[in-house]
Amino acid sequence: MRAPLVVLCIVASPGLAQEAVPAPAPGAPAAEIPLEVPAPAGTVPRHRDEEDGHRHVGGFFRMTLGGGFLSTTPSPSGAAAFSSGAASLSAAAGYAVAENWILAGDAWVSAAPAGKLGRDWTLGLTAFGLNITHYLMPANVYLSFVPSVTVVTVSDKNSEVVRETQAGFGARFSVGKEWWVADHWGIGIALEGFFASNHEQASAQPIWTTVGGSIVFTSTYN
């Protein structure tokens, strides 16, 4: 007589099918939980340069070039010694000490043909100062003030200095408007005015008072 064939079916429960997670050993550090939240699918993280684009922060460099007039008068005689059309150029480099506030070293010059002072002569005003600029945003309009050390020279056609003043005091004022052409680069136009007061080298000679103005094109990296 054959014994009945008994088939035992054991159905494993889902809980038993999963691997058991071992408990951390005593004294072991707890598992770190990532704090960064992943960006939503389909988005591209922004680069720091893109976040600073179209803002006046960080390093600053500006060049200007244009034309206007230059006039100088000796005192106390008061006679008008020279007045003529002139070219103007400046270069400034510095840093934004706060957003939209710039401090920079600024070298600027204005030069004009000085035929009244001598044949083929050139009158030049050379200056170096501290450029203080504030941008009015979002219009991207700026105001600049540059107190400066100034020197007035007269040069001949060979660029040799014929007359030169002592170092004096002067300043340049400007208001400009710029348009962004890249994240950190803007171009624009500005109206400038400037003055300087300088003694000639000999103490008995007059004080030269120089004034001028110009319209310039600007190129700024910030």
Q: Could you tell me the radius of gyration in angstroms? A: 36 Å
Helix content: under 10%
Shape: elongated
> Count the strands?
9
Oligomer: single chain
Highest-level CATH class of the domain at 62-76 and 84-221 = Mainly Beta
Fraction of residues in β-strands: over 45%
Strand arrangement in the largest pleated sheet: 1-2-3-4-5-7-8-9
CATH level-3 fold name of the domain at 62-76 and 84-221: Porin
Give descriptors for this structure:
222 residues; mainly beta; Porin; eight-stranded antiparallel barrel; 4% helix; disordered N terminus
Can you describe this structure in just a few lines?
The chain is mainly β. It contains 2 helices and 9 strands. The longest helix has 5 residues, at 48-52.
Descriptive notes:
- The chain is mostly beta strands.
- The protein has a domain at 62-76 and 84-221: Porin (Beta Barrel), CATH 2.40.160.
- 4% of the residues lie in helices and 56% in strands.
- It is built from two helices and nine strands, in the order ααβββββββββ.
- It has helices at residues 14-17, 48-52; strands at residues 59-75, 82-98, 101-113, 122-136, 141-155, 161-164, 168-180, 185-199, 207-221.
- It has an eight-stranded antiparallel barrel.
- Strand 5 (141-155) and strand 6 (161-164) form a beta hairpin.
- The protein is elongated, with a radius of gyration of 36 Å.
- The termini are far apart.
